[in-house]
Amino acid sequence: MKYIINFFKGLMIATIVICISFFMVTQLFNTRETTIPEVVDDRPSVEEFIGSIAETARKLGAENDLYASVMIAQAILESEHGQSGLSAAPNNNLFGMKGRYQNNSVTLETSEDDGSGNMTTVMAEFRKYPSYEESMKDYVRLLRNGVSWNKDFYAGVFKSNTKSYTDATKFLTGSYATDSKYNEKLNTVIAKYDLGQYDSPVKNKKTITVADGDSLTHIAEAHKVKVTSLKQWNQLRSDKIEAGQELNIYQY
Predict the structure, then answer these.
(1) Would you say 213 and 202 are in contact if contact means Cβ atoms under 8 Å apart?
(2) Between residues 15 and 58, which one has the greater pLDDT?
(3) Pairing of strands 119-127, 105-113
(4) In the chain, at which end, N or C, are there fewer CB atoms within 10 A of the end residue's CB?
């Protein structure tokens, strides 16, 4: 009997030890920090996208009596600042231009406004370009040459025929795009990103070196420019800058 009692005592002690050990190991794993994978957003910012096309737009606008600001704003809206499937390589269509370009096209789903604010989904053939620049040049040709039945169809957007870019965006509503609020959207984008600066030539350009403790806000204030402009001129993806980094600053 004594042997049996000692056996059960030993078994109980062993069971308690195992339970305590299991509990301690469980707590160890439960208290260990869970590592959350870092998600890196490698999509370009709106400012970075603007910086990639702004100087081409300035040049084309100056040469063709067009508002570069409107051109850039349209590219932002139509291409979702370069993020839409139509604007991405290998399509490179920034303006939603339909049809074919040098016999190249892509068919995609798109939304159309019936003129009363009601949107419907349709399939359409869109032009396919080798580069953003070719897309922009083709857009300019459309505005300058008009359509087959009226070569002056887009004359209402020319600088010489308008008082400001708001006249041009108003004209584009219902003529270029079916969206009944197209001009309001374009005007908002132009104001938000200070795109009017691209309607004038550059008077001066300089390069500065970022010092320790500098921020885009401090640099913008010191040079009397806007943070969004700094990001555009230097095609920055975020507000982060580092000491020793060089930044371009433009004056108009």
Answers:
(1) no
(2) 58
(3) antiparallel
(4) N
